[in-house]
Amino acid sequence: MTRALGWLAVLGLAAGLAAGFGYAPREAVQGNVQRIMYLHVPAVLTAYLAFVLVLVGSIGYLATRRPGWDRLAAAAGEIGVLFTGLTIVSGSIWGKPTWGTWWTWDARLTSTAVLFCVYVGYLLLRSLIEDPDARSRYAAVVGILGAVNIPIVHFSVKWWRALHQPSTILGPERSPIDPAIGLALFVNWVAFTLLFAYFLSRRMEIARLEEPT
Amino acid sequence: MPSNWGYVFAAYGIAAVTLLAYWRHLARRARAVAAHRAAKPRAA
User: What's the alpha-carbon Rg for chain A, to the nearest Å?
Assistant: First the structure.
């Protein structure tokens, strides 16, 4: 199952690259640098998914005390940090030629940086507590509190005046994106989701094997 | 509008290296766990 997910992810990523660099046209205003969005947008959507799973795993653990929920939260947290890091780096690289700066303390960028720091803290907390039950309980509380930041990141562009553009995919209005660009985004989002599922499956299996029997 | 391919390749290059590094990290860790579990019965 995990191996099949891995191969599906590889195929998806190859299709995503073909869609982003071959099928999708050069964007009229931004030019080629817009192609970074085929990486940036799926990365942040994958990070959202990961942190929602941290929330689900944390609630599940506190409700049932089953270690499987804790493994889900821990694995999703680690991979969520990875994808949030990619989101910040790719956004920064896109920002330099587009906004003229690598970084600005805009509401979306700042809240994303806070999101990153919260889940790095979550992973640090997990690594600092030796007692498995205490580690799972404290991490679950942080995993639940940390999820508060997800809607703040997403709606920051609505709630505050921001340099970052408003949502063009998960917004209430019909997306103004050209269909070819929208399709390339969709293919890459599916590919990233498959890659996330593969990483999650492997990471959870490793965590299961690492637990004392 | 300049082509800006350098920025595009930098972003994709960093992403590829990061994702491959994480994949390798998982593979190494899985091998280490498997080796540890295989060694355990002999030590007992």
Answer: 18
Tokens of A11: 């195929």
Give per-residue pLDDT as tens, A181-193: 999 999 999 999 9
Residue showing tokens 């609505």? A158
Ramachandran area for residue A31 (φ above 0: left; ψ -120 to 50: alpha; else beta)? left
Q: What is the model's pTM?
A: 0.92
Mutating which of A93, A192, A204 best tests the B interface, going by the most B Cβ atoms within 10 A?
Answer: A93
Interface contact flag, B19 A195, Cβ < 8 Å: yes
When scoring A17, A84, A90 by the number of chain B Cβ atoms within 10 A, the one with the most, hence best to mutate, is: A90
Residue A115 buriedness (CB in 10 A; 0-12 / 13-18 / 19+) = buried
